[in-house]
């Protein structure tokens, strides 16, 4: 969380493969949101590569919406999706 920005950013959410499907990511997201709300942010942003369909699916299910597509943002030829959730 950067106090100079008007939004919080969640960076790199990964659950170890053998533990997936057990609600771990949901628990981590709930904890992150509790901290974010406590810090008075009203908007949360995540950046997800177009190649990470599982991560995109997870965040869309969690109430995030696509706000921007950024081609070549980190890797040439790969588009990054910027997703946002208003709290
Ligand atoms: C996406 C990821 C974080 C999900 O972790 P998880 O612990 O298995 O997720 P959960 O078990 O907490 O599932 C939470 C919810 O999201 C849903 N969900 C999980 N993966 C999903 C997917 N691929 N598509 C749609 N929904 C999905 C679940 O159905 C569940 O919904 P429910 O609450 O209604 O039951 C995990 O698959 C992962 O780490 N993937 C690789 C991440 C990665 O590469 N990160 C680097 C780039 S950011």
Compose a concise summary of this entry.
This protein has 87 residues and is an alpha+beta fold. Helices cover 28% and strands 29% of the residues. Coenzyme A binds next to helix 1 and helix 2.
List the main descriptive attributes of the protein structure presented here:
binds coenzyme A, 87 residues, 29% strand, alpha+beta, Aminopeptidase
How would you describe what is shown here?
The structure is a single chain. The protein is of the alpha+beta class. It has a single domain, classed as Aminopeptidase (3-Layer(aba) Sandwich), CATH 3.40.630. The protein contains two helices and four strands, in the order βαβαββ. It has helices spanning 24-38, 53-61, and strands at residues 8-10, 43-49, 65-71, 79-86. A four-stranded mixed beta sheet has the order 1-2-4-3, with helices on one face. The model has no long low-confidence stretch (mean pLDDT 93). The structure holds coenzyme A. Residues 12-15, 20-26, 48, 52, 54-55, 57-58, 61 line the site of coenzyme A.
Secondary-structure arrangement, i.e. CATH architecture:
3-Layer(aba) Sandwich
Uncertain residue segments: none
Using the coordinates above, name the CATH class. Alpha Beta
* CATH fold name: Aminopeptidase
The secondary-structure class comes to alpha+beta
State the end-to-end CA separation. 15 Å
Average of pLDDT: 93
According to CATH, the homologous superfamily is Gcn5-related N-acetyltransferase (GNAT)
